Amino acid sequence: MESSEAPDTPVHGLEAINADVAIGEAEAFYPSEEFALPTPRVGQGGRIARSTAFFSAATALSRVAGLAREVVAAGYYGVYGPVSAFTIAFQVPNLVRALFADAALQPAFVPVFTDLIGRRQFKEAFRLASTLLLLITMVLGALTAIFVLAAPVIIPLFAPGFEGHLLDLTISLSRILFPILILLGVSGIVVGILNSYDRFGAFAISPFFWNLTIILVLVVLEPLFPQKDKIYAYAIGILIGTAVQLAIPAWDLRNTPFHFTWSLDWRHPGVRRVLLLMLPVTISLGLINFNQLINSFFGSLVSEEAPAAIDKAFRIYQLPQGIFSVAIATVLFPTLARFANKGEMVNLRATLANGMRQILFVLVPAAVVILALSDPIIRLVYQRGEFNPADTQLVGTALFWFAFSLPTNGIYLLQTRTFFSLQKPWQATALAVIDLVVSGLSAWALYKPFGVGGIVAGTGIGTSAAVVAQAVILRQKFGGLELGRLLSTTIRISIASAALAGVSWLIWDVLNGALGEGTVAQIVSLGTGLALGTLAYLGAAWTLRIAELEQILRLLRRRGA
User: Fold this and answer.
1) 12: helix, strand or coil
2) I need a labelling partner for 170 at 20 to 30 A (CA). Which of 51, 113, 124, 186 fits?
C-alpha cells in the first residue's frame, strides 16, 4: 500500500541507504499489524497480562533495589544537615523534570508517533522523533546552563532556612544534579519510541540498574571524600545512575526500525501537536505536585510530625501503586493510542474496561491488606532507631486512610491515559483540577477533627470525585464502559479480598503473640500471614470464577508448555 505522506527532504549517500533500510524494516515491523483485525478479548487479555506481569516484576525488583539504596545511604549519612541539602538540591531539578522532561513528554509523544506509524508514514515518524531528540537536548541544555549560573539566586527560594555552609553545599549539589534534566528529557522520547513498538522490557528494568549504580558509586566514592564533602558521592551517583538509566533503553532501540537523522525540522507539524499535547500534561503534573503540597500544608497545622508521617505512609502506599497500576497503564497506553487513532472505539472500550478490572484485581486486595495490617507493616519497615512506637501509630493511621484511595487512584491513572490516547488532554487537565479542588476542600474540612487521617481521606475523596467524572465522560464517548461486568467483578474481588484480610490478620495475630516484635519475628509473622492470606485470596478468586485470575493462569500454562 502506498503511503499518503508528503515528499521527504532528500538525503544522500550512506544516510540515504540507512534511511531506506530503516523504512524497509519498519514496513516489516509494522507494530499495528496485530491490530489490523479485531483482536479477540481473551487473546488480548493474555497479551496484556504477560506484558504487565513482566513490567510488574521488573518494577518490584527496582523498588527492592530502591529500598536497598535508601538503607545504604542512611547508613552513610543518617538524617543530618548535608542530607537535607542533598534533598533540596535533588528536588529542584526533579520538579523541573516532572514538568518538562520524561513524565510530560512521553504521554504527549506516543499518540502522535503511533498515529504516524499507524498510517505507515515511517519517514515522517522518524523525522519527528529525531527532531524532538535534538530540540529537547538544546532546550533543556540551555535551561540547565541558566540554572547552573543562577543557582545562588534560585536555591535560596526553595531553602529559606538554609544559610552559610549548608546553603553553599545545597547550591553546589544542585549544580551537579541539574544535568539529569537533559538525560531524562532524551529518555522520555527514547522510551516513547520503544513503547510504541510494544517494547517495555528495557524501560521496566532500567530503574533497577539506576539504583544499583548509585549503590556501587556510593560504596566506591564515599570513602574517597573528606568528611564534610562525603555527600557529593551521592550526587555523583545520581548523575551516573541516570546516564545508565538512559543508556539501557537507548541500546534497545536497535531492536526497532527507528533510524535517527540529524534533521532539526522544528516546523514539523508533529512537533506542534506534541507541544500542544504536552502543555496540559505539564499543567496536570503541576497540579499533582500542588496536591502533595496541600497534604504538607495542612499537616503542618496538625503537628510538627504530621507532614513527615504522611510522606512516610505515602512511600509505602506507592509500592503497590507503582508495581501494578503504573505497569498496567504503561503497557496499555500504546494499545489505547493505536485503537484511538484508528477510530476502533469498541476495541478501545474493551481494552480500557479490561485494564480497570485488572487494576481492581490487584489493588483491592492490596488496599484490604493495608486496612487490616497497617500498623504491623509500618512497624516492620520503619520502627528502629529514632522511629518509636508513637511514630508507628501516627504513620499507620495515615497509611490506613491512604488505603481507601488505592484502587480509585489506579483507575484514575488508566482513565487519564485514555484521555491522552484520545488526544483530549485538556479534559484530563480539567478533571485534575476537580481532584485538586475537592482534595483541598475536604482536607480543610477534616484536618481539625480527624488530624492526619482527615487530610489523607481528603486526598481519597478528591480522587474518587475525579474518577466518577472521568467515567461519566468516557461512558458517553464510548457508549458504555461495561460497568455491569465491572460491578460484578468488583463484588467478587471484594469477597475474595475479605478472605485475604481475615486469614492474614488472624495468622499474623497468632504468630505475633507467640514470637514477639523482634525484626525476624515480625518478618515471620507478617510474611506468613500475607502468604497464607494470598493463597486464600487466590482460592476464593478461583471459586468465584474471576476472569482476571484465569488470564494469569492461562499465561502461566503457556509458559510451562
Assistant:
1) coil
2) 186
CB atoms under 10 Å from CB of 382, counted, come to 18
Q: Does any domain span residue 245?
A: yes
Q: Which residues, other chains included, contact 520 with Cβ-Cβ below 8 Å and sequence gap of 6+?
A: none
Matching residue, cell 504536552: 278
291 Cβ contact list (under 8 Å, min separation 6): 435, 436, 439, 459, 462
Query: DSSP letter at 321?
Result: I
DSSP structure class, residue 518: S
pTM metric for this prediction? 0.62
> What is the structure's pLDDT at 37?
30
Amino acid making up residue 307: P
Helix or strand run (H / E) with residue 254: none
| Angle at 327 (CA atoms; ends 273, 244), nearest 5 degrees | 80
- Let me know: does 277 contact 417? Beta carbons within 8 Å: no
Per the structure, the count of domains in the chain is 1
242-285: pLDDT as tens digits: 999 999 988 988 888 888 888 777 777 777 778 777 776 666 65
Q: Is residue 394 part of a domain?
A: no
Residue 241: Cβ-neighbour burial (10 angstroms; 0-12, 13-18, 19+): buried
Number of neighbouring beta carbons within 10 Å of residue 305: 15
CA atoms within 13 A on the CB side of 220: 9
Among 409, 138, 125, which Cα is nearest to 270's?
A: 125
CA 96 to chain centre: 16
- Write out the residue range of the structural domain in which residue 137 sits: 75-266
What value does the mean pLDDT take over residues 170-174? 89
**What mean pLDDT is reported for the chain?**
77
Q: Is residue 118 part of a domain?
A: yes
| Cα 116 from Cα 501, distance rounded (Å) | 48
Sign of the Cα pseudo-torsion (543, 544, 549, 553, in order): positive
Cβ atoms of 211 and 71 closer than 8 Å: no
Average pLDDT, stretch 105-119? 78
Amino acid at 374: S
Q: Is residue 187 part of a domain?
A: yes
Q: What is the pLDDT of residues 120-171, one digit of tens each?
A: 878 888 888 888 888 888 988 998 999 999 999 988 877 666 678 878 888 9
Q: Is-contact 514 381, C-beta < 8 A?
A: no
DSSP class of residue 39?
P
Contacts of 551 (CB under 8 A, 6+ apart): 42, 45, 46, 48, 49, 358
Please provide the size of the chain in residues: 561
Q: How far are the Cα atoms of 46, 49, 146, 555 from residue 548, in angstroms, in the given order?
A: 9, 9, 51, 11
